[in-house]
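Figure 2 data, in text form.
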Amino acid sequence: MPLKMLRWLKCRERQPAQNLYPPDTPIHSARYVVLDTEFTSLDRRANRLLSVGAVTMEGASIRMGEQFYRVLNPGVEVPPSTVLVHKLRQSDIEQGVPPREVLAELRDYMAGAVLVGHFIKIDVDLLRKELRATEHSLDNPAVCTAQVHRWLLRKGRYSEDLFHRLENVDLASLAKIYDIEFREAHHALDDAFVTARLWQKLIYQLESRGVCTLGELLKICTP
C-alpha cells in the first residue's frame, strides 16, 4: 500500500467523523455504521451492554462482508425477565468477550463513520457509558431512522391517522411499511441488518424531499 494511503488511513482513524465529513457531503457519499445493541435492563444507572451488532454502508450500499457482532461478558447477572427479550442466557454471557476488548474493536470499526440506528440514542448513551469506563469517548454523529421516518411523514400528505402513524414507528412496523423482511426481533446483528435496509430506503426518500447533504440530514434527525 502506498505510504500516502497509509498516512491517510491513520489520520482517518484518529479524526472524529464530523471532521471527516463537511456539511455539504452528499448523503450518498458518507460512510455509515448501522448498529444495534442488547443490554441488561432499562435502568440507565445499572444497565450493561450484552451484545452489539453492526454493518457498514457506503452511501446506500450495504457492505455485506463488513459486519460486526460480539457478545460481551460484563461480569453481572442477567435478569431472567430480559432473557425473554434478547435470548442471551447467563451461560451465553459467561462465554462472552471482556467489554474492554470488544469496545476497542468497536471503536476501530466505527472510526470515521456516521452512526445509524433505530432509536439510536439508547444505543449511543449506553456505548458512551461503557466507553467512559475505558477512558474513551464517542463523538461520531448519529442518525435515528425513527426520527427520519417521522420527518418524512410530516412532510407528506395529511391523513386522519397521522398521529397513529407517527407513534407506530417500532422497527417491526417500519419493516412492514417499507416491505423489508423481518425475521428476528432483539438480536443485535439481525436488527442492524434490518435497520440498514430501512436506511437504504430512507436515503432515497430524503433525497426526493430535498435532503441531499449530511448537514441537512443531521439538522432533522440527530437524536
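Caption note: The mean pLDDT is 85.
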